[in-house]
Amino acid sequence: MVEFLQFTLSGISFGMIYAAIALSLVLIWRGTRLVNFAQGGMAMFTTYVAIEVIYRTGSYWTGFVSALAAGIVLGVVCQLTVIRPTMNKPPINAVIVTIGLLILLEGLAGIFFGGQFRSFPTAFSQTGLKINGTPLGVSRYDVFVAAAVLVTTLALAAAFRYTSAGLRMRAAAFNATIARLSGIRVARVLTVGWALAGLLGALAGVLVSPSTFLYPNSMDTIFVFGFTAAVIGGLDSPLGAVVGGLLLGLALSYAGGYLHNGSNLVPVVALVILVVVLMVRPDGLFSATQVRRV
Amino acid sequence: MTMQTLPRRLGAAAVTAVIVWFLSVRLDTFRDYQIAEIAVYVPAVAGLTVLTGLSGQISVGNGAFMAIGAYATALLLLHLNWPFIAALVASAAATAVAGGIVGVAAARLRGPYLAGATLMLGVALPALAFAYRGIFGADQGLSITFTAPAFLGASFPLTRWQAWVSAVVALVTLVLLANLCSSRIGRNWRAVRDDEVAAALDGVNVAVTRILAFVVSAVCAGLAGSLLAIVTSLVAPGAFTITLSIALLTAAAIGGLGSLPGALWGSVLIVLVPTYVTDVATSHGLSSSVGSNIPIAAYGAVLILVMLVFPQGIQGGLVGLLRLFTGPDQETRTAHDAPAPHATPPADEAPASHHEKEGTT
Amino acid sequence: MSSEPAALAVEELVAGYGGVVALDGVSISAGTADITAVLGANGAGKTTLLRAVSGMIRPRRGRILLDGTDLTGRKPEQTVRAGIAHVPEGQGVIPELTVEENLRIGMMSRPLGRPRAERAAALDEAFERFPPLAARRRKLAAALSGGERQMLVIARALLARPRVLLLDEPSLGLAPRVMAQVMDLVVGLSREHGITIILVEQNARGALAIADHGVVLNLGRVVAAADAATLAADVALRHHYLGF
């Protein structure tokens, strides 16, 4: 029973990380209709920025905030320099450009920060919490991870729903033509989308790095699972991203824990889940049928 | 396929073979090894460029098929002592089956969903090698002994033999692919890529066409995997990470999606650029962590630049340059079938998408 | 004719896509609050004309003048702020947004936002004037019927208070009775609010019934331009180009 709880809570914790990556992918997909293969690489890079700041200032929170700021900046810079020129070309080109960006970032990280594994600190203890002496299988840090992603997600959702800027972004995502003809600066909206995606990726990076160590390729697997979560949920659906992330996190946690040879079979389990979902819903769980336009 | 094109293709292949032979004899062992490396990639990149460029199905997981081909070949060579040719054919058959399975599973998937599924495939399959250590030799993998045949003499460099074998397989694959691409099957691929509904109305079986493309690209990757086994003499999971699948895709794109000559350029670039940059870096005495990462950063930068400057890849760029010198032909379509953007008159109702057209922005 | 510049003047406009020339020297002049019907068969260049005026495509030659100001080659974001609103065919509302949100988007073209109170008042006014929209205020626009969607389009256009409104096939897909209601609304825009309207329509009869002037395009050229009554009376022209 304790084991089950442990796997569940750990699954939720990792699931939220996948959800964060999935959300950033959904943000970019809805705005620009492309998959940002560099999302994990960007997250890795901003986490390196955080760790350098932490080393120099000794403060975790300064590093944390720096990572988020760096994420915003990196998102904007990437979109303006490298992505915007691909806008009128075949979509596959933009995908390849993001792959190039990923490779470039990994190389740059190795050059600037060194390739060795580095451990990343946490602000909260990672020892398991207990109630009346019974271990819960989750630590304060795990709670922090889940809460941070949840709060950020809810804040973004609220901003999208209730602010004018959010309306602009949704309008541009649903119909860029009407948006432009309504005076919305769609180009600017796209840049903001990338900035937010960078922020979410940076958050995922600092949250997961204590568990995975930090090295140029450390976010590769997280990206793959985040992408998988986004696909499972449906690339157009932010809710799908969160649900997909949690589902995947839980499933992989149980698989890793209960299956014989589990830890090696985790990617295989993920593949099976993905295939099963896509067989039934080729566009993801929360894909809406195409709405008829006037 | 007209009667003239086959001899032309065989001729081009023969000329390339002669060039390769010449280089392999004149250059040193290391260069021979590089030729072999390039030749290993060529079938895989060619198969992928056909799958993604011609039939419009993006795959970020073809490294998995290379793994299947490699492991199958290794197991047959090691445990059953089959001759290489037999192992090659058997591995191709195995990968064909795998390609069929994947093709069927992927038949209804499009765009990013297909990318996601194949990406996961590329990660999951090598994981199996770790999971079942007994058969697959775990981290250290399976080592193979591959030797040059006796009639070449005892002092014949192994690398040259490896280069020859790989080059022959690569060239044969290219010729066969070229024939396939200009056949009815190739036309069906393009038709389905461009407009599924129209193709279906024309009587093309969309699902079979798409699955066939997967099978063909899988077989090509399988062949590449078999070559990898004998060139590196080792088959280990570390060689088949997602990095490999991504490398194949980038090579195909950088060369020009849908272009067979492009597959050649892409394979050359993917082998030579990192090596060249490493040489430059070490000759400047840079530290190992910097030195080993510069080629990586450089490849990424090259990829971005080529895609921005030559959206149709290198082959497209070359064709464009050629046209600059020889003048535009009347009515020539772009030489390659990489899907190009074209501004369309308002009759179609394309929802605002990634390539918002009309020449604005 | 007064000496002040036309509300919208298009001079010898040439525009196209890739190798295709869709507009081959088209000139149009529309005065304040005029309704000008742009008619012709499919492929005549009607939609291209609107796209060129709003800036969705860049003209190759010719000029576009709004109250005498040269707007040629400006992008949509700029022409919208200058006062040209364009409703493309089949893209009047965003179905995934609510009715109210669609209306709020209509107000985004005004330069440098009005104060919030003013915007809220404008919204309330729109709902008063169009009760069916008020009833479905928080529903997704996807849930509206065809006629209600066009009503939403008109309401949004009103909120944007453009100088010139370019409407592309507003009656497409609507039942005849609903079509008539939409046309009435369009007339209201010009008569009560002084908005100059360029109306592209397949339904030539209905368009000429409400228009002041008509322009008939064929293969990118103007083949007839006169006041609506004259065009409607020209039976040969109607049969040849307009299908009735």
**How many structurally independent domains of chain A?**
1
Low-confidence stretches of chain A: 290-294
DSSP E strands of chain B, number: 2
**Which two chains touch over the largest interface?**
A-B, 67 and 60 residues
How would you write the strand order of the largest sheet of chain A? 1-2
**What radius of gyration of chain B results from the CA coordinates?**
21 Å
**Span of the ends, CA to CA of chain B:** 42 Å
* Oligomeric form: heterotrimer
What is the H-and-E element order of chain A? HHHHEEHHHHHHH
Mean pLDDT score of chain A: 88
Largest sheet of chain B: 2 strands, antiparallel
- Spatial extent as radius of gyration of chain A: 19 Å
Instruction: Estimate what percentage of residues of chain B fall within beta strands.
Output: under 5%
The description of the largest β-sheet of chain A is: 2 strands, antiparallel
Helical percentage of chain A: over 70%
Total helical elements of chain A: 11
Mean pLDDT of chain B: 83
Structural class designation of chain A: mainly alpha
Structural class of chain B: mainly alpha
Tell me what you see in this structure.
- The complex is a heterotrimer of chains A (294), B (361) and C (244).
- Chain A is mainly α and 294 residues long.
- Helix content of chain A is 74%, strand content 3%.
- Chain A has one domain (2-218).
- Chain A has helices at 2-32, 39-57, 60-83, 91-113, 140-162, 164-174, 176-181, 186-212, 220-233, 238-258, 262-280; strands at residues 128-131, 134-139.
- Chain A has a two-stranded antiparallel ribbon with strand order 1-2.
- In chain A, helix 3 packs across helix 8 (186-212) and helix 9 runs parallel beside helix 11 (262-280).
- The longest helix of chain A has 31 residues, at 2-32.
- Chain B is built from 14 helices and two strands.
- Chain B has helices spanning 5-26, 29-54, 63-79, 84-106, 111-131, 133-136, 158-181, 184-194, 196-201, 206-232, 242-255, 260-283, 288-309, 313-326; strands at residues 142-143, 234-235.
- Chain B has a two-stranded antiparallel ribbon.
- In chain B, helix 3 (63-79) packs parallel to helix 5 (111-131).
- The longest helix of chain C has 18 residues, at 176-193.
- In chain C, strand 7, helix 7 and strand 8 (196-200) form a beta-alpha-beta unit.
- Chain C is globular, with a radius of gyration of 18 Å.
- Helix content of chain C is 40%, strand content 25%.
- Chain C is α/β, with parallel strands linked by helices and 244 residues long.
- Chain C contains ten helices and ten strands.
- The mean pLDDT of chain C is 88.
- Chain C starts with 7 loop residues before the first strand and ends with a helix.
- Chains in contact: A-B, A-C, B-C.
- Chains A and B meet through helix 4, helix 7, helix 9 and helix 11 of A and helix 5, helix 11 and helix 13 of B.
